[in-house]
Design goal:
alpha/beta; 6-stranded mixed sheet; 4-stranded mixed sheet; 12 strands; globular; 13 helices; 3 domains; Endonuclease, Chain A
């Protein structure tokens, strides 16, 4: 019965012309949808609220164009979408999970000399932007991915900035070099010292914010930067698994377990089977979770990486120091050493 009611409500949404794109409360009232009915649709998931003041049918597929149309409904035409809202438009969410439970605030700035936006749910201001810093998307002026990345590198915290820029580089096909070329323009701006550090830490191969932070912490602690997305092969040369981070020659893997894909019983069973196979094939596997980023817990897994590296490097030195025996060959192959 609940499914039937859901279908009826979606049908009514289409009947009143609100199913094909974003709309506001005023649009809903004009279509004879009461405030009470709209609130019920939101509560039941028939309609979602991607931004404060903008509503969408939950049946619509999320796209850059659709996000831009949402913005066009709630911002003035003279403003430019910047910072986290611009990143959101380009397909990168920089918001914490707790923030996503509520309609997202909008970063909408006026060009220098214009009047700043003053309305609820909008973080307004003025900003100097060249004509190359912004573009049009579905009738909305928005900072380019390149400019958005540099602004976030200055304004977000260090770890948030690396995670956001890794994702922007991956989503938009930008290069680290293109960011470095533009950094001199930001000389004297607040946050530019951090931005220079952040840009040099980037790697678009990271596939989640947790992976980005894991890599940065490893580097900050004075360890070599591991390789990312390393494929592991079976005895026949077939790829069987992929590691988030690895020192491949030493057969040390570092995995980040995020809440989204590693919390169910099925996820845990799969992880256990996978890691048992890897360990049986000579890999040392170190697992990191979000809670391990806390200062008082960081030393535990960093020390585990140091110990694993020392162990494997010592084994390699010991094998090199003695004549090659037939019984040593498998061990040497496991450690990534070539036969003499």
């Amino acid at each position: 019965m609940q499914f039937d009611n859901h279908s009826l409500d979606l049908g009514r949404l289409a009947h009143v012309g609100l199913a094909d794109g974003p709309f506001t409360r005023y649009d809903a009232l004009r279509a004879s949808v009461s405030r009470h009915l709209l609130d019920r649709w939101v509560k039941e998931g028939i309609v979602r609220v991607p931004l404060r003041g903008a509503y969408l049918s939950s049946a619509l597929t999320d796209t850059v164009e659709l996000r831009a149309r949402c913005l066009a409904k709630v911002v003035a035409p003279h403003v430019v979408i910047v910072d986290r809202t611009a990143a959101w438009l380009w397909g990168v969410d920089t918001y914490a999970l707790a923030e996503l439970k509520f309609p997202l605030p909008i970063d909408a700035f006026s060009l220098r000399g214009g009047s700043r936006v003053r309305r609820g749910g909008v973080r307004g201001g003025t900003r100097s932007l060249s004509v190359d810093d912004w573009t049009w998307v579905e009738g909305v002026r928005v900072c380019t991915p390149l400019r958005t990345a540099l602004d976030l590198a200055c304004s977000l915290s260090r770890y948030e900035a690396v995670a956001a820029l890794d994702a922007l580089l991956r989503a938009q096909g930008m290069s680290q070099e293109s960011l470095l070329q533009q950094l001199p323009r930001f000389r004297g701006r607040r946050g530019v010292i951090q931005a220079r550090e952040v840009v040099r830490l980037l790697d678009p191969r990271a596939e989640s914010p947790g992976e980005s932070v894991t890599r940065v912490v490893i580097v900050e602690e004075g360890l070599p930067s591991p390789e990312l997305q390393v494929s592991v092969f079976d005895e026949r040369g077939n790829p069987v698994y992929r590691l988030d981070h690895a020192y491949e020659e030493l057969k040390i893997g570092i995995e980040y377990d995020g809440e989204e894909h590693h919390t169910s019983a099925e996820d845990r069973r799969h992880d256990a089977e996978r890691r048992a196979w890897l360990r049986a094939h000579g890999w040392i596997i170190i697992v990191v979770t979000k809670s391990d980023f806390a200062v008082h817990k960081r030393s535990e897994w960093i020390d585990a990486i140091r110990s694993a590296r020392c162990e494997r490097l010592e084994e390699r030195r010991a094998l090199r120091a003695r004549p090659l025996q037939r019984a040593d060959r498998v061990t040497r192959e496991q450690l990534g050493l070539r036969s003499a």
